[in-house]
Structures are given as C-alpha cells and as structure tokens.
Amino acid sequence: MVLLIASIIAFNIVAFKMNKKITPSHVLQIWTFTIAFQMIFDLIVEFKHHFYWYFTPAIEWEGLLPRLFLIPPVNIIFLNGYPFSKGILKKMVYLLFFVAGIILYEMAALLPEPWGYFNYGKWKIWYSVIVDPFLLLALVLFYKLLILLEEKSFLQKKY
C-alpha cells in the first residue's frame, strides 16, 4: 500500500506538470477510456481467470485505487512522451523503454505488504512483457481516433 499511495501522488504530479500536448478534454477522455479498458481487461483476466489481483483475490474498495488513480496518469505520461511525428524505430524504442519501466514497477508492486499491493495468481512476468505493448498501442490508437474525430467535428462546424 505504501508504494501505491506514493505512486498515485508521484504519477499524478508528473502527469499534470509535464502535460504539454494533451488538452483537458483529451485528458478526461483518456482517463475514462483507461478506466473502462482496465475494468474490461480485469473482468476477464483477474476476476474470471484469477491471473492476478490487487491486495486480495476478492472484490474490494482498495482495488479501485490503482484502476482510478494510478493507471490513467501513467497513460497520460506515456502519451505526452510518445513520438507521434517520428519514425517507426523511435516509436518502437520508446514503447520498449516504457514497457521496461512498467515491468520494473510491476516487480516492485509484487513486494509483500505494506510496500506492495499486487499479487500473481497464474500470471507470469512474461505475460506482461507480451501484453503491455499491445495495451499501450491500443491507447495510442484511441488517442489518434480522438484527434481524428475532433478534427472532423471542427471541419464540420466550419462549413
């Protein structure tokens, strides 16, 4: 729990202090998308198959903390640094370094309480190495869709 509370504070400060690219409207939409996507993913992976869980395998209020206040700001940080206008190699390197950071954080979150809060059931660290890039790419696609829809809406209002 110590790591979770410290991380929520730190990641939210970093996300909102370093945010230079993402509008408040997009922040809200990314935050909402992240919560919905995380809940759908956890519904299957955590609650149905018991691959991992926060704190205990039961459904509990504390489990809302990382879902509502930890993962969304991490996604804001990721998108703020993502090299949208760069080549594929820079995008892949950024993605790999970010996934490496997530894996290191996940390993720290696996520490016993009171420090950690995350637990593996059937999950293995290699699953995260494989799945996390796809989850982050889904976030990038969602953000690009946001931009596209906003531009389309703006053009329609202009005429």
What does the secondary structure layout of this molecule look like, with pairings?
Blueprint: H1 2-18, H2 24-48, E1 52-54, H3 64-81, H4 88-109, E2 118-120, H5 125-158
Antiparallel strand pairs: 1-2
Radius of gyration: 17 Å
Order of helices and strands: HHEHHEH
Report strand order across the widest sheet.
Answer: 1-2
Count of discrete alpha- or pi-helical segments spanning 4 or more residues:
5
How is the main sheet built?
2 strands, antiparallel
Q: Can you count the beta strands? A: 2
Classification by helices and strands: mainly alpha
Contiguous uncertain segments of 5+ residues: none
Portion in helices: over 70%
Shape: globular
Strand content: under 5%
Mean pLDDT: 96
The N- to C-terminal Cα distance equals: 53 Å
Question: If you had to describe this structure to a student in words, what would you say it looks like?
Answer:
The protein has 159 residues and is mainly α. It has helices spanning 2-18, 24-48, 64-81, 88-109, 125-158; strands spanning 52-54, 118-120. It has a two-stranded antiparallel ribbon with strand order 1-2. The longest helix has 34 residues, at 125-158. The radius of gyration is 17 Å and the shape is globular.
